[in-house]
Design brief:
319 residues, single chain, 11 helices, 7 strands, Spore Coat Polysaccharide Biosynthesis Protein SpsA, Chain A, elongated, alpha/beta
Amino acid sequence: MTQQVAVVIPCFRVRDHILQVIAGIGPEVALIYVVDDACPDGSGELVRAQCRDARVFVLQHVSNKGVGGAVMTGYAAAIADGATVLVKVDGDGQMDPALIVRFVRPILSGQADYTKGNRFYDLRQIRNMPAIRLVGNAVLSFMAKLSTGYWHLFDPTNGFTAIHARVARHLQAQEISERYFFETDVLFRLNILRAVVVDIPMDAHYGDEKSNLRVSQVLGEFLFKHVRNFGKRIFYGYFLRDMTVASLELLLGSALLTFGVVFGGLRWAQAMASGMATPLGTIMLAALPALVGLQMLLAFVAFDVANVPRRPIHDDLPD
């Protein structure tokens, strides 16, 4: 590979795995940035003391900024050093560094702006995944499809990613979620840029590493941010940047469905209270707008699914 590939490794409580992860990174990578995110077990100090790889640079956070904050610190350093493609690999040993070439290739060949891992391609591997992760990932993937607009993607929280440096430079780092919502928030912002994103099949590896994520602590936050990003994406894409027939379908469909449901619900409640049958005309006045509105919303969803970005943008962006 003629372009420079850089790897960013955010580190928080990965002391037992970080050296092995670095050792597995092949010669296709020119630069490696180990970002110690105020790690309590001193992962960065360990790398400084024991790693002899000349490609490795240790970046230190004084206070913990979360995985997103650590990755953006690594991105900034790699961009400043002239890297072309930035690969993010976790330091806990769950990701195989041998796959880096596979993640980088679509970007260097001009087929994608961003690539991410997908652990659900091989059905034989899924049986090795804990059931709670399967269910949680399915729910998160559907929510992410709505909020990011990338309907063809799955496994949105997968942290094995690669991005073209020109695209990363336009991500507005100060606005991206710094903690566990980071990967999904990046996808939302990539859609606003109209960047092409490609899934890369990979196997799931689960060893003795411990996750810092607690579903009960982030469920409310994730739901709020998904709803917020969905609203922003629809406003930016269908009303601010452009208006199409789909924009009208969304407005009219929402209005008709709301009217039909509310009007029908009120008339049903009145009929139940009075004990009198609802006239057929009243039923049709509620049912017809609801059905037409639902059909228009389904047409909007079909347009949105087909509206996934397909032309890579990194060649059109300034250095």
